[in-house]
Amino acid sequence: MKDERLSQRIEIELPAKLCFQAQPNAWTKATIINISTNGFCFRTEAKFNDLLNEKPIVRLQIAIAKKESVELVVQVVWAGKTSSYHCLAGGEIPSPSGPDYEKILEFYTKLLRERL
C-alpha cells in the first residue's frame, strides 16, 4: 500500500486537550502521539470512540513548550478503540494557515532537523 502523506510523521508525546464543536467549552485530555505538517495522531479516552468515528471537526490545544501552546481546528479522518482505556484518532488540518499553524510548522521543522 502506497503512503500518500504530504510529509513525514514524527513520533512524539505532547500533552493536549480537545473539544467537539457541539460542546465548545467541554475540553478533555488528549495526547498527541505523532505529528506532520498537515495533521496529527492523538490518543484520548475510549468513551469518545463513537463520537470520533463520526469524523467530526475538533479543536486541539497542543502544548509545544512549557508555557506555549497552539490551538488548531482538525478534521478527524479515522478513529479506533485500542483498549478499554484509549481511543486513537487521526486528523488533518483543513485550513493550514494562521499564527498557530505557523508555530506548529516551526515546531515540526525543528523536530525533523533534530532527528536527521
What would you say this structure looks like, in words?
With 116 residues, the chain is of the alpha+beta class. It has one domain: predicted glycosyltransferase like domains (Thrombin, subunit H). Helices cover 19% and strands 48% of the residues. It has two helices and six strands, in the order E-E-E-H-E-E-E-H. A six-stranded antiparallel β-barrel has the order 1-2-3-6-5-4. The model has no long low-confidence stretch (mean pLDDT 92).
Number of distinct beta strands: 6
CATH architecture: Beta Barrel
Strand order of the largest sheet: 1-2-3-6-5-4
Task: Provide the number of structural domains.
Answer: 1
Overall pLDDT confidence? 92
State the end-to-end CA separation: 25 Å
Structural class comes to: alpha+beta
Give the SSE map.
Layout: E1 10-20, E2 28-35, E3 39-45, H1 49-53, E4 57-65, E5 68-81, E6 86-92, H2 99-115
Antiparallel strand pairs: 1-2, 1-4, 2-3, 3-6, 4-5, 5-6
